[in-house]
Amino acid sequence: MKKAIERFPDQADLIGRLVGQSETFRSLCEDHQLAVETLDGLTARRSMDDKIVHEYRTLVEDLEMDIASALNKMR
C-alpha cells in the first residue's frame, strides 16, 4: 500500500479504505509494492536499458493503470 500511496498521494484515504475492503485491491497494491521494490533494486545494479528492467518497468506501469482504474471506479 505504501508505494501505491506514494504514486497516488492525493488518493491516500481512498487507497486505505479500499485496501481494508477489497482483497483484490489489497493484492493489487501488494503486487505493485513488490514490483516497484524489485525495479528499484534492479536499476541500482544494472543498466537502465536491460531487458528485465524494461519488463519490470512495464509491469509497474500496468499495475499503476489497474490501481488508477480501481480508484476511478470508486470516486
Describe this structure as you would to a colleague.
By secondary structure, this protein is mostly helical. The chain has one domain. It has 4 helices and no strands. Helix 2 packs across helix 3 and helix 3 (23-45) runs antiparallel to helix 4 (51-74). The chain is elongated, with a radius of gyration of 13 Å. It starts with a helix and ends with a helix.
* Whole-angstrom Rg: 13 Å
- Give a quick account of the main beta sheet: strands, pairing sense, barrel closure: none
How many angstroms does the end-to-end distance come to? Answer: 18 Å
Number of helices: 4
- Helix/strand-derived category reads mainly alpha
Helical residue percent?
A: over 70%
Strand content: under 5%
Protein name: DUF465 domain-containing protein
Organism: Inquilinus ginsengisoli
Give a quick summary of the entry.
With 75 residues, this protein is mainly alpha-helical. The chain has helices at residues 2-7, 12-21, 23-45, 51-74. It is built from 4 helices and no strands.
Topology record:
Elements: H1 2-7, H2 12-21, H3 23-45, H4 51-74
Protein name: DUF465 domain-containing protein
Name the descriptors:
elongated; mainly alpha; single chain; 75 residues; 4 helices
